[in-house]
Amino acid sequence: xxxxxxxxxxxxxxxxxxxxxxxxxxxxxxxxxxxxxxxxxxxxxxxxxxxxxxxxxxxxxxxxxxxxxxxxxxxxxxxxxxxxxxxxxxxxxxxxxxxxxxxxxxxxxxxxxxxxxxxxxxxxxxxxxxxxxxxxxxxxxxxxxxxxxxxxxxxxxxxxxxxxxxxxxxxxxxxxxxxxxxxxxxxxxxxxxxxxxxxxxxxxxxxxxxxxxxxxxxxxxxxxx
Length: 225
Prior knowledge:
Low-confidence stretches: 218-225
Oligomer: single chain
Number of strands: 7
């Protein structure tokens, strides 16, 4: 992967901090438990740090060696890795949550399936999102529609759970997390996911339908899902 500099990670830290604080309580309420977690492409480790602070989660992050100087998590909670060359080993015991948000678009298409397969070895619950076509960003070499990644998880026996209605109005969460992030679950019966239809009541049926239609499309008109 590209050698991202300190300025890149400072920007990531600022964006991730606010987003994680708002997003993670929603995920926590859905999962059976959140005692252990790993993050593929953790950057500064903000999402993991927030999990540990809020819930006492035992955490571990993976990213390039160049992230070391910017970590907000302890060095013992971090393993440097180049996803273009290798993947983290499968754990002896699966963790409660594996995650990777806004990372997979940085990985060459030849390694994309290996990346998803490695995530699936880590947990039965995976929080995943990646940049869509034309989203733009530093070293985005593999921007893909939602279905591209979803089909890989489905091939591994996971069901996609659409969290977007739950985070719709949480403006402290950066738009790309709200737009791109889904939860992939091995056994859908194990999660608690009541859809908050009060959103519909707040907006009215017509506006709600219009918004959901737009939400289920790409941010870029004409893209096929």
